[in-house]
Every structure is written in C-alpha cells, then in structure tokens.
Protein 1
Amino acid sequence: MSGPERIQKVLARAGVASRRAVEEMVAEGRVTVNGRPARLGQRIDPDHDAVAVDGAPVGLRADLVYYLLNKPPGVVCTADDPQGRPTVVEMVPDEPRVFPVGRLDADSEGLLVLTNDGELAHRLAHPSFGVEKEYLALVEGRPGRGALRQLREGVELDDGPARATAVSLPEPSAVRIVVHEGRNRLVRRMCEAVGHPVLRLVRTRIGPLANRTLPPGRWRELSQSEVRQLERSASPPESRCGGGSGDELESE
C-alpha cells in the first residue's frame, strides 16, 4: 500500500458496503479500528490496523485470497504428504501460498476453505467461535428416533462427550448432522457410538457457506460477500449470541 487511506474507501474496496453506507456505519458506531470506535474520515493502514464491523474482524490486506474446494476422497488436507498422496494445496493455485482451514480426513469429502488469512482461518476452525459445520453421512443400517435423540443429547467418546446441535434424516440411511466443535473424526465416531458406522461422509456447509453445484475436485474463489459472511459467522463470541465450546482445532 502507498500509505494510510480513508476508512470508507478501504472498507468499500474490501466489499463491506458502499462508501456512503460505510460512513453511516461509522456514524452509528458499528466500526472499530484497533478496538476503538472509528471516526468519519479517519485514515487507516490496511496492512497494520485491525478493523472490525459489528464486532467481526475484516481482512483488508490486498494479498488475501479465499478459495472454496470440493475435496474428493483420497486427497489429504496437508501441504505435503510423506506417502505421496495428492493434497488439497496441490488442487488450487500455487501463489499466493494458502493452507486449509481445519481438516477433512482422507476418506471424507466436501467443502473446504483454503486461504492465507491466518486470523480468519483460526476463527473458522476453532470451536470456541461456534462456527457450524454441516455433514451428510451415509451410514450402515437405518437410524431410528432413539439414535437421533442420542446424537442430539450427546454421546460419550473416549475423549469426552460430544453432541450435535442439529440432526435430521433426509433418507433412511443418510444422517444430516451439524456440529460446532471439531475433534478428530468426530462425526464418524459419534455415528459409530449410536450403532451406525459411517460409509461415506460429505461436508455440505461451513457456517453460512454452501455450494451444491461445485463438482468434486473443483475450486472457486469466494466472493467478497461470502468472505464478509464468513467473517460475521466467526466473529468473537462476546460480540454475538451463541458460540461453541472446547479448545481443539477442527480435524474431521
């Protein structure tokens, strides 16, 4: 950047809103810079100042990129694999270098965000921020009401209790399950605990982000609007209602 710029120009370029709308947000006290209320006409440095709108931090650096990948099975969520398996990082552009947000195990598939925005990545993956992840699990057998109730109320795993925030049965052997936390292979272990091991697991939603038309193995860039939605969904717990629990990073 050439130097500090007016806050309304920076936020408009970041896709938050039009300059006029940003001015109104500032006047209403909805924008903060480094934790303090922004001022109309204030100049900020996008590379160094921390800006938040309605409590949700906004990524302002010009080099930030955000990709949505539909991960196929057999691909691992690492930058490099000693076993020589394909990685998610190899499926998106080489530059700028990005990393996956959370994980899907090699056998699982579905939506995965890759970015070089470390702050947003941390908030999306960490369960304390309560970002929902939705999965569709094809399981053995036909789960009944008792199994679904167990998933909602909680099951005991070897690393502690776990429960789904929402469960439904769109098909006799397909369970749609929403979780906030992200322990290793959590959904698979929860389903096995109620007697219905997973045969296939697909992540269908990350917070507000879903995409039913993206083919397996393909990726696309997130729009500015989608990035803003993700930022709002991963805003600090004290700035919104709800929130998750636990302190492990996601690794489904």
Protein 2
Amino acid sequence: MAKKRVVSWERKRKRLGYFFIAPFIVGAIFFILIPLGTSLLYSLSEMTIKSDGTGYQLTLVGLKNYYKLLAVDPNYRQVLLEAVGNMLLNVPIAVIFSFFIASILNQKFHGRGLVRGIFFLPVLLSSGIYLRLASVDQMTAMMQQGGAASSADAGSVSTAFVNMLTALNFDTSLISFLVSAVDRISTIVAMSAIPIIIFLAAFQSISPSIFEASYIEGATGWEVFWKISFPMVSSQILVCVVYTIIDSFTSSSNVMINLVHQTSFTSFDFGLGSAMVWIYMVIIFAIVGLVFAILNKHIFYYD
C-alpha cells in the first residue's frame, strides 16, 4: 500500500492564495494585458475599414502616428499642456481642501454623520447613471437656459471680485490663481470626496493615548496638529496626491480624454487615438513617479 503524501500547512496556504488571486490574474490577462498589447499595435499602425464591410486592415507605419502628434499636430500638444496645467492647479487645491475638511470632520459635533454624507455626495452624483439622467432631463435643460440668461450677472460678480483684489494690492499671479480656483469649486469638491475619506480614516487611526500624553506635557492644539497629526497622516498625503493626479488625468471632463474619444470613435482613427493614449500614459507615469520621488523623502512612517 502506497504511503499517503502529507502536504504541509504552508503549501496548503500557498495553494489557497493562488486560488483566490486566480480571478485577478485571469482578468489582468484578458482585460488589461491583451488590450494594452492591441492598443500598442494600433498606435504603430494605420487602420482602414474594408469597403465590403467585412472588417478592417492594419498597416504597420512605425512611429508615424507619434511623429504626427508630437511634431506636426499643434492641437494635440495644446490639449496635452492644458490637461497637465489643469492637473497642476486642481491637485494642490483638492488635497489641501480634503485635508482640512477631514480634520474638521474628525472632531465631535452634532450632525457629524450627515455632514460626512454630504461631502461624499459628489461621488454618487458623478456616477454614469446620474450623468445619463441629467443629459436627458428637461429640468436640466431649463436650468441651463436660465444659467445662460444670467451669465451677464455672473460676469459682473467675477469682475467685481477681481477689482476688489486689485484694490487690495494683491499680486496679479495670485489674483489669477484665486479666480481660477473659485471657478473650479464644483470640480474641486467632486475630486475631494475620496481623499476626504482617506484622510479621515488616517486621523481616526492615530492612537488617542498619543494626544493625551502630548496634552499632559503641555502641548497646545496647534502644536499637536502640526507635530503629531500632520506627520502621522503624511503617508496618506502621498496616497491622496497620487490618487488625485490620476483622477484628474482620467476624468471624463478632461480635455485629453474627450480628444481621444473624438479621434477614435468619431473620426475612427484608432491608430492616432492609440498613439495619443500611449503618449498620455507615459506622461502620467512620469509625473506620478516624479511626485512620488519628491514626497516620499518627507513622509513619516509610524511603526
């Protein structure tokens, strides 16, 4: 009689781990790696639709699409710079706003749960179902007409705001930044929902005994915030910055996303659209890597 093979507990755990990650591996292969390879092939090719309607034909053209975008087409470079500029303006405002809103929501006050829910509403309202309903809603159309009718009043308010800042001898660049920030309030609030939750979880993970010890030693609330709370959530600042950068670059309202969609699915130039995406993706990874390298040097990791 053959001796029964005994499988160690460590090997069983490894097999169980492979079983649980198998769906992710299969999904990554079929929904990430294969589409990425196809997109790269499209970016190096020129696609033509067959006249008989039986499909399409790919002709390898090398780096022609990339050369056209970077050296010939001025529109793509302009849109790319606009997307990066919007990111550089939106991300610092959204992260700072999220940080201080989370620090306020971490305090104990009546109606705290309701206020937290209100700040998370932009995530629900920005869902695809809501946007689809809003696009066909007659009330939305009426509101848009009303907004167009009152655009002159809004312009006068903006002008008065700029004149007030100018009268106070604010620097011109600072005035432009403040006006641009005010114009982006709705975008900033929508981008801040997830970072607020991340920061709030980070604040709540700090042990209360640390604060108690600091207050016993005579530390003020200001000192506790900047010397304890801020350093101990600094790792989440890096997470929120990276998340907000990617969210800004991949937002449906991003000018680059709209240009790629128009080029690929309206003009049916999938080769040029794929090249746009690959250039865009390389720039995103470069920016995220640079930001990570800079911020990671100033992160405090609590062991």
Protein 3
Amino acid sequence: MANYKDILKGTFDKVVDKVKDVAENGTVREVIDNGVDKAKSYSKIAKLSLQMNGDTEELKRVYTEIGKLYYQQQKDSPEGCFAPLFSQADELSRHITALSDEIKAMKAECDVDDDIDVEICEFEDVVDATENDGKDEHDD
C-alpha cells in the first residue's frame, strides 16, 4: 500500500524546489516588471490618444473658423472650386432661414411661449415624485 504522506511530501518538495528555482532565476521578477512596463505603456498610449483626439477636434474648429472667415471675405466673388461650395452655403442658409420663419409662424399661430422654463433635477427625485403622485391618487 502506498504511503500517501511520503507522496504528498515528495510533491510538496518538488513544488518548493520549482518555486525556489523560478525565484533564483528571476523569472517572477521579470514577469512582474514586464507587466508593469506594459501597464505603463497602455496608460501612456491612452493619454496620448486623448491628447491627439483633443488636438484633432481643435484643428477641426480652426479649419471651420478659417472657412467661415474666407467665406465672409469672398462671398460676393467666389473663385474656382469655391464657387459651387459658396452657392451650396447660400442655398442652405436660405433654407435654414425659411425653416426658422416657418417655426416662428407656427409658434405665433399656436400661441407658444418661446421662454419655456425647464427644471433640471435628479432622476431619483422624478421617480419619487411620480410614485408619490400615484399614491395620492389611490388614497382619494
């Protein structure tokens, strides 16, 4: 019959020897250092990506501003490839103005107030108030 105590001790000794071997060879330290380095790299990549996205949005804003300024300066005499774009911008501006006028007319016809007050509150407050309103109705 096998002596389980000796088998377990032998297995335990092999595990201890393996741990000592790994620790002496520095493998654990290398794995930890490698993991730390990767985490730092991922963090730096995320930070740089955020900066790049912010700069890209700022560049879009600058391009838009350049386009607006150029349009304002040259709208009466567009040249070359800008002529169709200026025409499109004029057409869209007229359409927006027409839609705005239509909205104003409908509001006047329906007697809609332009100054509508909106109350900002927490979601839980709205739910509680709605639940309380429902309770009050059932109590009557």
Protein 4
Amino acid sequence: MAFRKILRDKEESSVNGTVYIVLAFTLGAIGVHNFYARFWIRGVVQFLLSLSAPFMLFFPLIFTSMWAEVELLFQNRDKEGRLFRGSRSVIWMLRLLSIVMLCLGLLSIETIDFDTVLQMANEVSDVEKVLQVEEL
C-alpha cells in the first residue's frame, strides 16, 4: 500500500491545480471544481445543494461556498490520489489570494439596521392598506 502511494506521488495528474483553484473560487458553490477533479459524488452533492438553496433561504449555498473554500485550501490530489500538476508557487499564491478576498468580503459586511427594516415593513403594510381601501 505504501509502495503504491510512493508510485502515485511520482505520477502527474491530468488535473491542473491552478485551474482547480480558479474553478473552486469562481464556481465552487455549485461544485464545478469537483467535476473537474473527477470527484463526481462531491460535485453532484454540491450542485444539488446549490439548486435547493432558493427554497431554503440560501443556507445551502452558504454551506457549499464554505465547503468549496476548504477544498480550495487543502485539496492537492485528484480522485486517483495523484498530485495536481502546475506550479506550486502559483497554487499557493492563489490560495493566499482567496484568503485575502474572503477576509475583505467578511470585513465589508455591514450590520443590519433594524430600524430601517422596521420602517420598510411599516411602509409595505401602509401600501397594502391603501390597496385594500382602493379595492373597496
């Protein structure tokens, strides 16, 4: 078993690590990167979860996005266990860039102003009341 692993480490995968990371960063929530690396079951699960997201308040999409980010950071091998081909330095630079982008995205999230939400809800109910009166 260990001998096979040593032999697989010498083999080069047909999956390019740079392409895998770019796919995981851009289309990872729907599982495209897993289809590219021939992880069919993972890809189908991510795709089905992302399709069900609008019916479940988009929570599955958040989950699959986090799942794709973890795979982007830690996945180095294809389904057969062979290392991705491509420049290791470029792969690590893209991984660091994804972390920076994630942090910037999290920092840009503003807190919810509940007063504005309540004001919008009151405006909607006022419009509904006006429409009901107009119907009479």
